[in-house]
C-alpha cells in the first residue's frame, strides 16, 4: 500500500478545488448517488444536445478527497463527448479500478488516460474503491434515466 | 494486576499488524481481548465442551454450572438483586430489541411516546421505530446542548403525560457525554415511566451499580467489555421479566408444550430460547475477573487521565476540532480536521498503524444535528497509553502535511 | 482426511473426562469441535481481532473480508444461488423466529394455517405459536406413522386452501426420520405455499443442495455442525429477504436514519443488526473446510454404517426398545428400557463415560403422541466408532444389571 | 460419585414397587408437582383428621427410580404423623439433601432416619437432586393449600 499513490498531487488539488461543482442550468438529465460508507452524497447534472453530446456536466455534493477528485476529473473529461462514448469510458474506468492494469478505451486520449490513472492508487485500498466510483455510477444512472438513487453498497466496485 | 503494563495481557499487541505496531483506538467499536478470555474459550472447547441445559452427563452438568456461574459473576459485577435478572443475548442490539418488542407488545399503544435522545445509537432507535410503524407510537428526542450533552432538564422538557418509556445511552459513543442516569431514573419513576439504559459504552468504563442507577433495563455488549463476540447482556428488574411476554420462542424456554397451547418456563429461561452462546458466556467470566483484578476505579481513572491528555494535545493541534465538550466525559475523542474528510484521515492514520474509526458511528441523528456527514473517532481502552495519544497526534500531523494544512 | 482416525482432530478425546474415556453420543445436542476451528478462533482473537463493518483500518478490512468469505463458503456448501441469501443468526432458533416473525407480520392473518409436523422441535413450534396468540393463525400438525416418519401423504392430507406456510424438520432429532423435503416442496409450491426447513439435524449429516431441495427457508445451527456456539444460519431465497420486513433493528442494517423515518440497508445487512458473532463466523469457515475435506458423502456413509450397527446391537439387547424405525434414518438412536426411566439410564451410562441425553429432547408433542414422558437418545457424529456403540451396549447392560433386568 | 450409593437396594425396591401409589378416597388436601428436567409428575393426596394428623397420604405419578422411591418412602414415613411434625421433617430432609451431613429432626425415629438417609446418595448427583425432592415440595404445597403447581425448577433443591 502506498499513500503517495493514493493521494497524488492532482487528486489533492482536484479534491480541494473541484471543477464543475455547481448545478447546470437547464439540465436535461440528472441522478443522485450515495455512499453509506462515508456518508458521501453526489448529484450529477447533464445537459445533452440534440446529437446526444454532453454540452455540460456538473455535480453537487460533498465527500472525501477521493470522491470529490474523482467527480471533478470525471466531469472535466466527459464534457464534450458523446453519450455512447461516455458509456464506454465509464466501463473502461470501472474495469480499470476493478482489475485491469490500464485503460483501453479508444475514446480517451493519452493525456486523459494519464489523468484518470491517477485514481488507480485506490485499488490498493479496497474500502476506498467506492469513493472513487460513486460519481461514475451516478453518471451512468443519469444517462440511463434510472429513477432510483445510486447506492454504492449495491455495486461491486 | 498493574495497569501500566496491561498491554502484556493482550496478545494482539505482541504482533506487528501490517508491519507496524498497533495503536488501537477503536475500542468503542470493539475492544481487544485479554489472553485469559481467549485461553478460556480454547480450554473449554478442547477439554470441556458440552451444551448446557438438561442433559445429565458429566460434561453437560459441568458446562451448565460454568454457564450459571457467569450469570452470578455478572449479577455481582453490576450489583443486580437477583441472578435471574441477568439475561444473555446475542448483543446489546438484541437486548434492546427484546425490550422494545416485549414492552411494546404489552404496554404501548397508538399515541404513546417513547423518549430517546439525539445521542442515541441506531440500535437504540430502530427497535423503537418499529413500534412507530407497527403501533403508531411516537418517538421524541431529547436535545443535546452545545457541548454535546443531554441534561436532566433536556429530558424533563420532553416528558409528557404520554411518555411511556425513556430509552437513553449511558455514555455517548461520539461525544463521550455521560448522562445523569440516576437523576433521570428518579425523575422518570416519579412519573411512573420506566427507563432503559443503553450501557454499551458505559459498561466497559464506568462502575455499574443497578441499585444505585435504579434503571429498569440495562443493555450490555460483551465484546466491548473485553469479552467474546456474539454475546450481550440484558439486565432487567425481575418484575419486568416476570410481567412481559417472552421474546424468541424455542427449546429451553418452555414449561409445557401441547398441540393447542404452550406455557413458558421461569426466569431466566423464558428469555433464553434455543442453544445459547455457551462458550462465550463461560469465557466472559474471565472478562469479569480481569476487570475485577484491575478494579473499575483504576480503569476509570486511567482512561480519564488519558482522555484529558488527549484533549489537551488535540486542542493544541491547529485545524483539529474536538466534537463535544461535556463536563462528564468518557473515553472517546471524536474530531474533525477542517479540510480533510474523516475517511481520508482514517486511511492515512492507518498507514501508521493507528486504528481509528470514521463515519457516523451509527449516530446519524446526532451527525445531522451537528451538520456533519462524518467524524473521526479515537476511542480508548485500558490498554491505551500516552504514547498511543502521541502517535495519534503525529499521524494527524502527517495527514495535515499530505493535505498541506498547518 | 481419513474418517477412521478422525477422533485425532478433536482435542476433547485426548483427555480423560471425569477419569474416563469419553464416549460422546450427544452430537444431536451439540457436536464437538475439530482443532482447526478452535485454533482459528484463538488466532483470530490473538492476532487479527477487529469488528467488521465500515471501519477502514487494516484489521477491520481484513476481518470484514474473512467474515464475508465465510458467507461465500456457506453459499457454496449449501449450493445457494447468491451469497446474500446467507444470513448469520445467533442460532437456528433465531433463524426460525426471524422467518415466523417477518413472514407472519407480512403474510399471515387470522384463520391462515401453518402446517408443522408432530416431529417438530420446540424451536420450530413456539415461534408459530406466537402468531397463533397474536394473530389467530391456526397450527396444524402432520401426523407421524407407526415407524415415526412423516410422509408426503401425511403432509398432503393436512394442506388446505388456508395453508400459508409449511415448516418442517429435515431430520427428526428423536426418531431420525429424514423427510422427503424435495417432494414436499414440489407439492407445496404447486399450491403456492412456501416451505421452511428446520435443518438443524439435516445440516451436519446430509448433503445440502438448496437448488435441489428448492425450499424457501433453511435453518442451520452451526454448533451442531462442528462449529462454534452462538451461531446459526438462515438460508432464504432472495425474493423473500427482499420482500419481507427486517427483523431486529440496530446498527449496520440501516441505510438512512432521520428523526421521522428510517430506510433499511440491502441484503444481507438488512437482517444482520448490531455487531455479529464475528469470531464465530470467521471460525465457521474452518468447519466448512473440515466437512469438505472429509466429504459429506463419506460422512453420511460412515454414520449410516454406524447407525445400522447400533440398531442391530440394540435390537438384540433384551428390554431395549428403539423409538421409530423410519426407512430413511439419520444418525440418532432413541430408545427406552422397560422398567428403567431414561434419566436413570443416562446417569448410569455417564458413570462409564457414555454421554447420552434423556428427556423429551424439546419434542413434547412427539413424546405425547408416543405416550412417553422421556426417552434416552444416543446421537452420532463423524468421530463415533463401532467401539463407541459397543461401549454403549455394555453400559446399558450394566444399567439392566443394577435394575435386575435381563 | 458412587452409583451404588445412589441406587441402593431399598431405592430400587421402592422405585419398582412404590407404596401408596394410589389416590386417597375423601382426601382433603392435595397438590401437583412437576419436574421439567425428567418430565416427572406427581400428585400428592392427604387426608387429615380433625387433630391435623395425617390419616392417609398417597400419590399418583410417574418418574425415575429416585423420584418414585422418594415419594414412596416419604408417604410411608409421614403417615400417622401430625401436620406440624411433618413440616419439620420436610425441612430436615431438604436440609440434609442440600448440605447437612445428617438428619436432626426429633420427630424422626432412628430407623426412619436410616431409611431417609438412603436417599442421601443423590447429593453427589446435582442434576438428580430435584428428582428426590419433588414429592417433598409437593407435600408442603398440599399442606399449605398452595394453589399453584410445584415446579422443581423454581426450587433451590
Ligand atoms: C431439530 C432441531 N431444531 C431446532 C433446534 C434448535 O437449534 P438451536 O438450539 O441451535 O437454536 C435443535 C437443537 O436444539 C434441533 O435439534
Ligand atoms: C452506544 C451503543 N449502543 C449500541 C451498540 C450496539 O451494540 P452491539 O453492536 O454490540 O449490539 C453500540 C455498539 O455498536 C453502541 O456503541
Q: What's this model, at a glance?
A:
The complex is a heterotetramer, with two copies of chain A (157 residues) and two copies of chain B (406 residues). With 157 residues, chain A is α+β, with helices and mostly antiparallel strands.
Descriptors:
heterotetramer; A: 157 residues; alpha+beta; four-stranded mixed β-sheet; 6 helices; B: 406 residues; alpha/beta; Aspartate Aminotransferase, domain 1; Aspartate Aminotransferase, domain 2; four-stranded antiparallel β-sheet; 13 helices; binds pyridoxal-5'-phosphate
Topology record:
The complex is a heterotetramer, with two copies of chain A (157 residues) and two copies of chain B (406 residues).
Chain A: H1 3-6, H2 9-16, E1 29-35, E2 40-48, E3 54-62, H3 65-78, H4 83-98, H5 110-117, H6 129-143, E4 150-151
Parallel strand pairs in A: 1-4
Antiparallel strand pairs in A: 1-2, 2-3
Helix pairs in contact in A: 2-3, 3-6, 4-6
Chain B: E1 23-24, H1 35-48, H2 58-78, E2 86-89, H3 92-107, E3 113-117, H4 126-135, E4 138-142, H5 152-158, E5 163-169, H6 181-190, E6 195-198, H7 210-213, E7 217-221, E8 232-236, H8 238-243, E9 254-257, E10 262-264, H9 278-294, H10 296-316, E11 320-322, E12 332-337, H11 342-350, E13 354-355, E14 357-359, H12 364-370, E15 375-379, H13 386-402
Parallel strand pairs in B: 1-13, 3-4, 3-5, 5-6, 6-7
Antiparallel strand pairs in B: 2-8, 7-8, 9-10, 11-12, 12-15, 14-15
Helix pairs in contact in B: 1-9, 2-9, 10-13, 11-13
The structure holds pyridoxal-5'-phosphate (PLP) (2 copies).
Amino acid at each position: 500500500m502506498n499513500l503517495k499513490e493514493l493521494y497524488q498531487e492532482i487528486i489533492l488539488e482536484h479534491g480541494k478545488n473541484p471543477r464543475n461543482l455547481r448545478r447546470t442550468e437547464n439540465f436535461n438529465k440528472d441522478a443522485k448517488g450515495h455512499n453509506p460508507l462515508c456518508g458521501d452524497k453526489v448529484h450529477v447534472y447533464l445537459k445533452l444536445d440534440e446529437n446526444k453530446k454532453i454540452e455540460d456536466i456538473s455535480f453537487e455534493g460533498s465527500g472525501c478527497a477521493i470522491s470529490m477528485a474523482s467527480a471533478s476529473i470525471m466531469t472535466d473529461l466527459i464534457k464534450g463527448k458523446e453519450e455512447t462514448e461516455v458509456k464506454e469510458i465509464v466501463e473502461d474506468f470501472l474495469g480499470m479500478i476493478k482489475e485491469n492494469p490500464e485503460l483501453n478505451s479508444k475514446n480517451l486520449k493519452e493525456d486523459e488516460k494519464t489523468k484518470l490513472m491517477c485514481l488507480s492508487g485506490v485499488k490498493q485500498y479496497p474500502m476506498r474503491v467506492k469513493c472513487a466510483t460513486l460519481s461514475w455510477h451516478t453518471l451512468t444512472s443519469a444517462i440511463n434515466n434510472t429513477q432510483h438513487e445510486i447506492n454504492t453498497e449495491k455495486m461491486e466496485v | 494486576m498493574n495497569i501500566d503494563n496491561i498491554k502484556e495481557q493482550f496478545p494482539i499487541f505482541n504482533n506487528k499488524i501490517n508491519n507496524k505496531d498497533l495503536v488501537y483506538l477503536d475500542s468503542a467499536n470493539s475492544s481487544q481481548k485479554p489472553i485469559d478470555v481467549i485461553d478460556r474459550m480454547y480450554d473449554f472447547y478442547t477439554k470441556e465442551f458440552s451444551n448446557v441445559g438438561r442433559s445429565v452427563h458429566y460434561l453437560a452438568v459441568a458446562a451448565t454450572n460454568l454457564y450459571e456461574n457467569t450469570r452470578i459473576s455478572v449479577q455481582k459485577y453490576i450489583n443486580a438483586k437477583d441472578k435471574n435478572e441477568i439475561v444473555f443475548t446475542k448483543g446489546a442490539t438484541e437486548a434492546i430489541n427484546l425490550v422494545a418488542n416485549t414492552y411494546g407488545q404489552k404496554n404501548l399503544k397508538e399515541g404513546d411516546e417513547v423518549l430517546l435522545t439525539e445521542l442515541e445509537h441506531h440500535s437504540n432507535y430502530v427497535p423503537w421505530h418499529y413500534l412507530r410503524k407497527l403501533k403508531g407510537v411516537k418517538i421524541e428526542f431529547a436535545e443535546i446542548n452545545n457541548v454535546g450533552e443531554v441534561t436532566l432538564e433536556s429530558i424533563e422538557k420532553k416528558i409528557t403525560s404520554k411518555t411511556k418509556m425513556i430509552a437513553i445511552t449511558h455514555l455517548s459513543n461520539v461525544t463521550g457525554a455521560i448522562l445523569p442516569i440516576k437523576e433521570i431514573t428518579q425523575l422518570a419513576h416519579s412519573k411512573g415511566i420506566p427507563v432503559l439504559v443503553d450501557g454499551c459504552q458505559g459498561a466497559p468504563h464506568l462502575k455499574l451499580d443497578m441499585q444505585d442507577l435504579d434503571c429498569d433495563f440495562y443493555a450490555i455488549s460483551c465484546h466491548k467489555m473485553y469479552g467474546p463476540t456474539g454475546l450481550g447482556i440484558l439486565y432487567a428488574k425481575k418484575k419486568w421479566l416476570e410481567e412481559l411476554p417472552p421474546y424468541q420462542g424455542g427449546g429451553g424456554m418452555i414449561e409445557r408444550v401441547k398441540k393447542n397451547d404452550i406455557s413458558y418456563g421461569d426466569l431466566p429461561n423464558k428469555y433464553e430460547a434455543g442453544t445459547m452462546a455457551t462458550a462465550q458466556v463461560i469465557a466472559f467470566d474471565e472478562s469479569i475477573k480481569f476487570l475485577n483484578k484491575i478494579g473499575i476505579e483504576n480503569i476509570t481513572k486511567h482512561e480519564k487521565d488519558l482522555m484529558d491528555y488527549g484533549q489537551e494535545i488535540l486542542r493544541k493541534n491547529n485545524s483539529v476540532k474536538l466534537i463535544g465538550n461535556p463536563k462528564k466525559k468518557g473515553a472517546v475523542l471524536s474530531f474533525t480536521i477542517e479540510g480533510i474528510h474523516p475517511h481520508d484521515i482514517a486511511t492515512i492514520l492507518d498507514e501508521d498503524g493507528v486504528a481509528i474509526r470514521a463515519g457516523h458511528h451509527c449516530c446519524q441523528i446526532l451527525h445531522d444535528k451537528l451538520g456533519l456527514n462524518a467524524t473521526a473517532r479515537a476511542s480508548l481502552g485500558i490498554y491505551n497509553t500516552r504514547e498511543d495519544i502521541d502517535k495519534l497526534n503525529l499521524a494527524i500531523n502527517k495527514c495535515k502535511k499530505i493535505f498541506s494544512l498547518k
